[in-house]
Protein backbone atom coordinates (compact mmCIF):
# COMPACT_ATOMS: atom_id res chain seq x y z
CA UNK A 1 0.00 0.00 0.00
CA UNK A 2 1.62 3.20 -1.13
CA UNK A 3 1.42 6.29 1.02
CA UNK A 4 -0.08 9.29 -0.72
CA UNK A 5 -0.08 12.98 0.12
CA UNK A 6 -3.87 12.87 0.08
CA UNK A 7 -4.02 10.07 2.62
CA UNK A 8 -1.60 11.81 4.95
CA UNK A 9 -3.40 15.11 4.62
CA UNK A 10 -6.77 13.54 5.37
CA UNK A 11 -5.51 11.89 8.53
CA UNK A 12 -3.80 15.05 9.76
CA UNK A 13 -6.89 17.17 9.13
CA UNK A 14 -9.17 14.72 10.93
CA UNK A 15 -7.06 13.82 13.92
CA UNK A 16 -5.23 17.05 14.58
CA UNK A 17 -8.06 19.33 13.40
CA UNK A 18 -5.69 21.02 11.02
CA UNK A 19 -6.86 24.20 9.39
CA UNK A 20 -4.19 24.01 6.75
CA UNK A 21 -1.96 21.23 5.48
CA UNK A 22 0.57 21.30 2.69
CA UNK A 23 2.27 18.08 1.73
CA UNK A 24 5.00 17.78 -0.82
CA UNK A 25 5.85 14.33 -2.12
CA UNK A 26 9.58 14.60 -2.72
CA UNK A 27 9.96 11.00 -3.76
CA UNK A 28 8.83 11.35 -7.33
CA UNK A 29 5.62 9.46 -6.63
CA UNK A 30 6.75 6.36 -4.77
CA UNK A 31 5.56 7.70 -1.44
CA UNK A 32 8.74 7.37 0.55
CA UNK A 33 9.79 10.96 1.07
CA UNK A 34 7.60 13.87 2.16
CA UNK A 35 7.81 17.31 3.60
CA UNK A 36 4.83 18.81 5.38
CA UNK A 37 3.52 22.14 6.58
CA UNK A 38 0.92 21.56 9.26
CA UNK A 39 -1.29 24.28 10.78
CA UNK A 40 -3.52 23.42 13.73
CA UNK A 41 -5.25 25.09 16.64
CA UNK A 42 -4.14 22.19 18.74
CA UNK A 43 -0.57 23.46 18.54
CA UNK A 44 -1.52 26.63 20.43
CA UNK A 45 0.61 27.09 23.53
CA UNK A 46 2.60 23.94 22.90
CA UNK A 47 6.37 23.80 22.40
CA UNK A 48 7.77 22.53 19.12
CA UNK A 49 8.80 19.26 20.66
CA UNK A 50 5.24 18.46 21.70
CA UNK A 51 3.85 19.52 18.31
CA UNK A 52 6.19 17.17 16.48
CA UNK A 53 5.30 14.40 18.88
CA UNK A 54 1.61 14.92 18.11
CA UNK A 55 2.28 14.57 14.40
CA UNK A 56 4.53 11.56 14.92
CA UNK A 57 1.82 9.88 16.99
CA UNK A 58 -0.88 10.70 14.46
CA UNK A 59 1.14 9.26 11.57
CA UNK A 60 2.88 6.47 13.48
CA UNK A 61 1.65 3.75 11.12
CA UNK A 62 2.38 5.65 7.92
CA UNK A 63 5.84 6.76 9.05
CA UNK A 64 6.90 3.12 9.13
CA UNK A 65 6.72 3.08 5.34
CA UNK A 66 8.20 6.51 4.78
CA UNK A 67 11.94 6.80 4.40
CA UNK A 68 12.20 10.50 5.14
CA UNK A 69 9.63 12.91 6.59
CA UNK A 70 10.24 16.50 7.52
CA UNK A 71 7.72 18.90 8.96
CA UNK A 72 6.91 22.43 10.01
CA UNK A 73 4.23 22.91 12.63
CA UNK A 74 2.45 26.24 13.01
CA UNK A 75 -0.48 27.69 14.91
CA UNK A 76 -3.13 29.41 12.74
CA UNK A 77 -2.07 32.82 14.09
CA UNK A 78 1.54 32.25 13.16
CA UNK A 79 0.54 30.89 9.79
CA UNK A 80 -1.48 34.02 9.01
CA UNK A 81 1.37 36.18 10.14
CA UNK A 82 3.71 34.38 7.77
CA UNK A 83 1.20 34.66 4.94
CA UNK A 84 0.98 38.40 5.53
CA UNK A 85 4.72 38.78 5.15
CA UNK A 86 5.10 37.05 1.85
CA UNK B 1 33.35 -2.34 -20.63
CA UNK B 2 32.29 -0.98 -17.31
CA UNK B 3 30.08 -2.89 -14.97
CA UNK B 4 29.27 0.02 -12.70
CA UNK B 5 25.93 1.58 -13.59
CA UNK B 6 23.59 4.05 -11.95
CA UNK B 7 19.98 3.34 -11.12
CA UNK B 8 18.00 6.56 -10.98
CA UNK B 9 14.60 5.05 -10.36
CA UNK B 10 12.97 1.99 -8.89
CA UNK B 11 11.96 0.83 -12.35
CA UNK B 12 15.53 1.03 -13.62
CA UNK B 13 16.79 -0.81 -10.57
CA UNK B 14 14.25 -3.61 -10.88
CA UNK B 15 15.00 -4.04 -14.58
CA UNK B 16 18.70 -4.41 -13.85
CA UNK B 17 18.02 -6.97 -11.13
CA UNK B 18 15.68 -8.88 -13.42
CA UNK B 19 18.21 -8.99 -16.26
CA UNK B 20 21.15 -9.97 -14.10
CA UNK B 21 19.22 -12.98 -12.75
CA UNK B 22 21.31 -15.33 -10.67
CA UNK B 23 24.51 -13.34 -11.10
CA UNK B 24 25.67 -11.18 -8.22
CA UNK B 25 24.26 -7.66 -8.21
CA UNK B 26 25.95 -5.33 -5.77
CA UNK B 27 23.67 -2.41 -4.91
CA UNK B 28 25.78 0.43 -3.59
CA UNK B 29 23.87 3.14 -1.68
CA UNK B 30 25.80 6.39 -1.66
CA UNK B 31 25.42 10.17 -1.48
CA UNK B 32 27.32 12.95 -3.16
CA UNK B 33 28.39 14.63 0.08
CA UNK B 34 29.94 11.66 1.87
CA UNK B 35 33.73 11.39 1.87
CA UNK B 36 33.45 7.76 2.86
CA UNK B 37 31.36 7.15 -0.24
CA UNK B 38 34.04 8.73 -2.43
CA UNK B 39 36.53 6.21 -1.11
CA UNK B 40 34.11 3.33 -1.49
CA UNK B 41 33.27 4.32 -5.06
CA UNK B 42 36.91 3.67 -5.92
CA UNK B 43 36.78 0.33 -4.15
CA UNK B 44 33.66 -0.62 -6.10
CA UNK B 45 35.29 0.40 -9.39
CA UNK B 46 38.34 -1.72 -8.61
CA UNK B 47 36.13 -4.65 -7.68
CA UNK B 48 34.19 -4.40 -10.91
CA UNK B 49 37.44 -4.55 -12.90
CA UNK B 50 38.57 -7.60 -10.99
CA UNK B 51 35.20 -9.34 -11.16
CA UNK B 52 33.47 -8.36 -14.41
CA UNK B 53 30.68 -10.89 -13.77
CA UNK B 54 29.45 -8.72 -10.87
CA UNK B 55 27.01 -5.98 -11.74
CA UNK B 56 27.56 -2.95 -9.52
CA UNK B 57 24.53 -0.67 -9.33
CA UNK B 58 24.97 2.72 -7.71
CA UNK B 59 21.88 4.10 -6.02
CA UNK B 60 21.89 7.65 -4.75
CA UNK B 61 20.21 6.88 -1.46
CA UNK B 62 18.44 10.17 -0.95
CA UNK B 63 17.10 10.58 -4.45
CA UNK B 64 15.66 7.08 -4.82
CA UNK B 65 14.18 6.70 -1.32
CA UNK B 66 11.89 3.83 -2.25
CA UNK B 67 14.80 1.47 -2.85
CA UNK B 68 16.52 2.68 0.31
CA UNK B 69 13.35 1.94 2.22
CA UNK B 70 12.97 -1.48 0.64
CA UNK B 71 16.40 -2.58 1.81
CA UNK B 72 16.20 -0.66 5.10
CA UNK B 73 19.10 1.54 4.17
CA UNK B 74 19.24 4.41 6.65
CA UNK B 75 22.88 5.36 6.38
CA UNK B 76 25.58 5.51 3.73
CA UNK B 77 27.62 3.81 2.50
CA UNK B 78 25.59 0.59 2.52
CA UNK B 79 25.96 -2.42 0.22
CA UNK B 80 23.20 -4.91 -0.53
CA UNK B 81 24.11 -8.18 -2.27
CA UNK B 82 21.37 -9.44 -4.55
CA UNK B 83 20.90 -12.67 -6.50
CA UNK B 84 17.67 -13.64 -8.25
CA UNK B 85 16.20 -10.35 -7.03
CA UNK B 86 16.65 -11.58 -3.45
CA UNK B 87 18.84 -9.93 -0.87
CA UNK B 88 21.48 -12.40 0.26
CA UNK B 89 23.89 -10.26 2.24
CA UNK B 90 24.60 -6.72 3.38
CA UNK B 91 27.62 -4.70 4.43
CA UNK B 92 27.09 -1.49 6.41
CA UNK B 93 29.68 1.25 6.35
CA UNK B 94 32.98 1.89 4.60
CA UNK B 95 34.52 -1.49 5.29
CA UNK B 96 36.64 -2.00 2.19
CA UNK B 97 38.28 -5.25 3.27
CA UNK B 98 35.06 -6.92 4.38
CA UNK B 99 33.25 -5.78 1.23
CA UNK B 100 35.99 -7.07 -1.05
CA UNK B 101 36.05 -10.43 0.71
CA UNK B 102 32.27 -10.85 0.57
CA UNK B 103 31.98 -9.76 -3.06
CA UNK B 104 34.71 -12.19 -4.12
CA UNK B 105 32.95 -14.92 -2.18
CA UNK B 106 29.47 -14.31 -3.55
CA UNK B 107 30.67 -13.54 -7.08
CA UNK B 108 31.58 -17.16 -7.57
CA UNK B 109 28.35 -18.88 -8.52
CA UNK B 110 29.31 -22.20 -6.99
CA UNK B 111 30.85 -20.78 -3.91
CA UNK B 112 29.13 -22.46 -1.06
CA UNK B 113 32.02 -23.14 1.31
CA UNK B 114 33.31 -20.00 2.98
CA UNK B 115 36.74 -18.76 1.92
CA UNK B 116 39.60 -20.63 3.58
CA UNK B 117 40.61 -19.35 6.96
CA UNK B 118 43.64 -17.10 6.93
CA UNK B 119 46.83 -18.95 7.74
CA UNK B 120 47.70 -18.10 11.31
CA UNK B 121 51.34 -19.12 11.09
CA UNK B 122 52.57 -16.03 9.34
CA UNK B 123 51.33 -13.88 12.21
CA UNK B 124 53.73 -13.54 15.11
CA UNK B 125 52.19 -15.69 17.79
CA UNK B 126 51.24 -13.86 20.92
CA UNK B 127 52.81 -15.35 23.98
CA UNK B 128 50.15 -17.44 25.76
CA UNK B 129 50.68 -15.85 29.14
CA UNK B 130 50.35 -12.37 27.67
CA UNK B 131 47.19 -13.49 25.95
CA UNK B 132 45.73 -14.92 29.15
CA UNK B 133 46.63 -11.81 31.09
CA UNK B 134 44.93 -9.64 28.51
CA UNK B 135 41.86 -11.86 28.44
CA UNK B 136 41.48 -11.82 32.21
CA UNK B 137 41.66 -8.03 32.25
CA UNK B 138 39.58 -7.48 29.13
CA UNK B 139 36.62 -6.59 31.34
CA UNK B 140 36.37 -5.53 34.97
CA UNK B 141 34.44 -8.72 35.72
CA UNK B 142 35.37 -11.67 33.52
CA UNK B 143 33.88 -15.15 33.58
CA UNK B 144 35.59 -18.11 31.90
CA UNK B 145 32.88 -20.68 31.36
CA UNK B 146 31.67 -23.56 29.23
CA UNK B 147 29.33 -22.15 26.61
CA UNK B 148 27.74 -18.71 26.76
CA UNK B 149 25.42 -17.00 29.28
CA UNK B 150 22.43 -17.76 27.05
CA UNK B 151 23.65 -21.27 26.27
CA UNK B 152 25.72 -22.62 29.12
CA UNK B 153 27.16 -26.04 28.36
CA UNK B 154 27.66 -27.26 31.92
CA UNK B 155 25.62 -27.10 35.12
CA UNK B 156 28.27 -25.23 37.11
CA UNK B 157 28.59 -22.58 34.43
CA UNK B 158 24.81 -22.28 34.28
CA UNK B 159 24.54 -21.76 38.03
CA UNK B 160 27.24 -19.11 38.19
CA UNK B 161 25.59 -17.21 35.33
CA UNK B 162 22.27 -17.39 37.19
CA UNK B 163 23.78 -15.86 40.30
CA UNK B 164 25.54 -13.08 38.40
CA UNK B 165 22.39 -12.29 36.43
CA UNK B 166 20.22 -12.33 39.54
CA UNK B 167 22.55 -9.81 41.19
CA UNK B 168 22.61 -7.72 38.03
CA UNK B 169 26.38 -7.94 37.68
CA UNK B 170 28.07 -6.38 34.66
CA UNK B 171 30.31 -9.15 33.32
CA UNK B 172 31.83 -10.47 30.12
CA UNK B 173 32.45 -14.11 29.31
CA UNK B 174 34.88 -16.32 27.44
CA UNK B 175 33.85 -19.75 26.20
CA UNK B 176 36.75 -22.09 27.01
CA UNK B 177 35.21 -24.86 24.90
CA UNK B 178 36.04 -22.75 21.85
CA UNK B 179 39.74 -22.46 22.65
CA UNK B 180 41.66 -25.38 24.06
CA UNK B 181 44.86 -23.41 24.42
CA UNK B 182 43.18 -20.97 26.78
CA UNK B 183 41.29 -23.78 28.50
CA UNK B 184 44.47 -25.65 29.42
CA UNK B 185 46.68 -22.60 29.81
CA UNK B 186 44.48 -20.71 32.25
CA UNK B 187 44.32 -23.68 34.64
CA UNK B 188 48.08 -23.52 34.99
CA UNK B 189 48.32 -19.74 34.89
CA UNK B 190 45.86 -19.28 37.76
CA UNK B 191 46.58 -22.55 39.47
CA UNK B 192 42.90 -23.43 39.48
CA UNK B 193 41.88 -26.82 38.09
CA UNK B 194 38.26 -26.32 37.09
CA UNK B 195 35.78 -24.10 35.30
CA UNK B 196 33.94 -21.77 35.67
CA UNK B 197 36.47 -19.20 36.88
CA UNK B 198 35.47 -15.68 37.82
CA UNK B 199 37.92 -12.76 37.72
CA UNK B 200 37.55 -9.25 39.08
CA UNK B 201 39.97 -6.51 38.02
CA UNK B 202 42.41 -9.15 36.80
CA UNK B 203 42.34 -11.20 40.02
CA UNK B 204 40.85 -14.67 40.35
CA UNK B 205 37.85 -14.63 42.70
CA UNK B 206 37.19 -18.35 42.43
CA UNK B 207 34.80 -20.93 41.05
CA UNK B 208 31.14 -21.63 41.63
CA UNK B 209 31.44 -22.59 45.29
CA UNK B 210 33.15 -19.35 46.22
CA UNK B 211 30.69 -17.27 44.27
CA UNK B 212 27.82 -19.14 45.96
CA UNK B 213 29.29 -18.42 49.35
CA UNK B 214 29.74 -14.76 48.53
CA UNK B 215 26.16 -14.67 47.34
CA UNK B 216 24.89 -16.18 50.58
CA UNK B 217 26.95 -13.71 52.59
CA UNK B 218 25.44 -10.90 50.52
CA UNK B 219 28.87 -9.76 49.35
CA UNK B 220 28.49 -10.00 45.60
CA UNK B 221 26.93 -6.63 44.95
CA UNK B 222 29.46 -4.81 47.07
CA UNK B 223 32.38 -6.53 45.34
CA UNK B 224 31.50 -6.82 41.65
CA UNK B 225 30.44 -4.08 39.25
CA UNK B 226 26.67 -3.65 38.91
CA UNK B 227 25.19 -3.36 35.47
CA UNK B 228 23.80 0.06 34.71
CA UNK B 229 20.24 -0.11 33.53
CA UNK B 230 19.63 1.13 30.00
CA UNK B 231 17.73 4.14 31.33
CA UNK B 232 20.63 5.09 33.56
CA UNK B 233 23.02 4.67 30.68
CA UNK B 234 20.90 6.84 28.40
CA UNK B 235 20.56 9.48 31.09
CA UNK B 236 24.30 9.66 31.58
CA UNK B 237 24.86 9.75 27.81
CA UNK B 238 22.53 12.68 27.17
CA UNK B 239 24.22 14.51 30.02
CA UNK B 240 27.73 13.65 28.89
CA UNK B 241 28.29 17.13 27.51
CA UNK B 242 26.27 20.37 27.73
CA UNK B 243 25.26 19.87 24.10
CA UNK B 244 24.91 16.29 22.88
CA UNK B 245 24.01 15.22 19.37
CA UNK B 246 22.89 11.66 18.67
CA UNK B 247 23.52 11.09 15.00
CA UNK B 248 24.38 8.60 12.29
CA UNK B 249 28.13 8.64 11.85
CA UNK B 250 30.35 11.42 13.18
CA UNK B 251 30.54 15.17 12.46
CA UNK B 252 33.54 14.49 10.20
CA UNK B 253 31.97 11.47 8.58
CA UNK B 254 28.19 11.79 8.74
CA UNK B 255 26.31 8.85 7.27
CA UNK B 256 22.90 10.37 6.70
CA UNK B 257 21.86 13.67 5.15
CA UNK B 258 19.85 14.84 8.15
CA UNK B 259 22.77 14.22 10.49
CA UNK B 260 25.08 16.04 8.13
CA UNK B 261 22.79 19.07 7.88
CA UNK B 262 22.34 19.39 11.64
CA UNK B 263 26.13 19.32 12.16
CA UNK B 264 26.44 22.10 9.59
CA UNK B 265 23.88 24.24 11.42
CA UNK B 266 25.56 23.77 14.80
CA UNK B 267 28.90 24.66 13.26
CA UNK B 268 27.50 27.75 11.54
CA UNK B 269 26.01 28.90 14.81
CA UNK B 270 29.30 28.35 16.58
CA UNK B 271 27.75 25.87 18.99
CA UNK B 272 30.19 23.42 20.53
CA UNK B 273 28.81 19.91 20.83
CA UNK B 274 29.69 16.31 21.45
CA UNK B 275 28.22 13.55 19.37
CA UNK B 276 27.28 9.90 19.72
CA UNK B 277 27.11 7.56 16.74
CA UNK B 278 23.92 5.54 17.15
CA UNK B 279 24.94 3.22 14.30
CA UNK B 280 27.61 1.85 16.59
CA UNK B 281 25.24 0.93 19.40
CA UNK B 282 21.87 -0.57 18.63
CA UNK B 283 20.83 -0.70 22.27
CA UNK B 284 21.19 3.06 22.56
CA UNK B 285 19.68 3.56 19.10
CA UNK B 286 16.46 1.73 19.97
CA UNK B 287 16.42 2.69 23.65
CA UNK B 288 16.75 6.43 23.20
CA UNK B 289 13.80 6.55 20.81
CA UNK B 290 11.57 5.18 23.57
CA UNK B 291 13.29 7.04 26.40
CA UNK B 292 12.79 10.42 24.75
CA UNK B 293 9.62 9.53 22.88
CA UNK B 294 11.22 10.66 19.63
CA UNK B 295 11.19 8.26 16.68
CA UNK B 296 14.04 9.51 14.51
CA UNK B 297 17.66 10.65 14.42
CA UNK B 298 19.44 13.04 14.69
CA UNK B 299 18.39 14.15 18.20
CA UNK B 300 19.86 17.22 19.84
CA UNK B 301 20.06 17.61 23.62
CA UNK B 302 21.03 20.60 25.71
CA UNK B 303 21.82 19.99 29.38
CA UNK B 304 20.10 16.64 29.15
CA UNK B 305 16.90 18.09 27.65
CA UNK B 306 15.75 17.12 24.17
CA UNK B 307 15.68 20.13 21.85
CA UNK B 308 14.41 18.12 18.89
CA UNK B 309 15.34 16.77 15.50
CA UNK B 310 16.57 18.53 12.38
CA UNK B 311 13.27 20.26 11.55
CA UNK B 312 13.08 21.88 14.97
CA UNK B 313 16.72 22.89 14.98
CA UNK B 314 16.26 24.43 11.53
CA UNK B 315 13.24 26.35 12.69
CA UNK B 316 15.02 27.59 15.79
CA UNK B 317 17.96 28.69 13.67
CA UNK B 318 15.71 30.57 11.26
CA UNK B 319 13.98 32.39 14.09
CA UNK B 320 17.34 33.13 15.72
CA UNK B 321 16.44 31.31 18.93
CA UNK B 322 18.79 28.34 18.64
CA UNK B 323 21.87 29.70 20.32
CA UNK B 324 19.90 31.34 23.06
CA UNK B 325 17.91 28.19 23.73
CA UNK B 326 21.02 26.09 23.99
CA UNK B 327 22.96 28.51 26.12
CA UNK B 328 20.13 29.16 28.56
From TrEMBL, chain A:
Would you identify the family this protein belongs to, as annotated? Answer: Belongs to the BolA/IbaG family.
Q: Which Gene3D superfamilies match?
A: Phosphatidylinositol 3-kinase Catalytic Subunit, Chain A, domain 1
Q: What are the GO cellular component annotations?
A: cytosol; nucleus
Q: Which InterPro entries match?
A: BOL2, BolA, BolA-like_sf
The biological process GO terms on file are: intracellular iron ion homeostasis; protein maturation
User: Would you tell me the protein name for this molecule?
Assistant: BolA-like protein 2
Q: Show the GO MF annotations.
A: 2 iron, 2 sulfur cluster binding
Automatic annotation (TrEMBL), chain B:
Q: Which GO terms describe its biological process?
A: intracellular iron ion homeostasis
User: Does the keyword section mention Iron?
Assistant: yes
GO MF terms held by the record: iron-sulfur cluster binding; metal ion binding
Q: What keywords were assigned to this record?
A: Iron, Iron-sulfur, Metal-binding
Classify the source by domain of life.
Eukaryota
Gene3D superfamilies the UniProt entry points to: Glutaredoxin (3.40.30.10)
Output the InterPro entries linked to this UniProt entry.
Glutaredoxin, GRX_PICOT-like, Monothiol_GRX-rel, Thioredoxin-like_sf, Thioredoxin_domain
Thioredoxin domain residues = 1-108
**Pfam families under this entry?**
Glutaredoxin, Thioredoxin
Q: Name one GO cellular component term.
A: nucleus
Q: Which NCBIfam families match?
A: Grx4 family monothiol glutaredoxin (TIGR00365)
Please identify the protein, giving its name as recorded: Glutaredoxin-3
| Organism name | Holothuria leucospilota
> In the record, what lineage is assigned to the organism producing the protein?
Eukaryota, Metazoa, Echinodermata, Eleutherozoa, Echinozoa
Amino acid sequence: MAITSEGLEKKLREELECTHVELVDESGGCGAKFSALIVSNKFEGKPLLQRHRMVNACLAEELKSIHAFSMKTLTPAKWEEQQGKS
Amino acid sequence: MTRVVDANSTVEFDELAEKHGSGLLLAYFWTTWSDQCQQMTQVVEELSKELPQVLCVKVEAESVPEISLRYEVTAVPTFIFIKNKQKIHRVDGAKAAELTKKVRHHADMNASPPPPLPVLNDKPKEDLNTRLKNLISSSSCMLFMKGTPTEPKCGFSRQIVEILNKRNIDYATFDILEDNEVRQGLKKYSDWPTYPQLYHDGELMGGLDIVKEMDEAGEIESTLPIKQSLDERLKSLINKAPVMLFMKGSPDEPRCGFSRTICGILKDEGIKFHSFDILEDNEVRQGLKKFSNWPTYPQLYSKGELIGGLDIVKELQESGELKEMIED
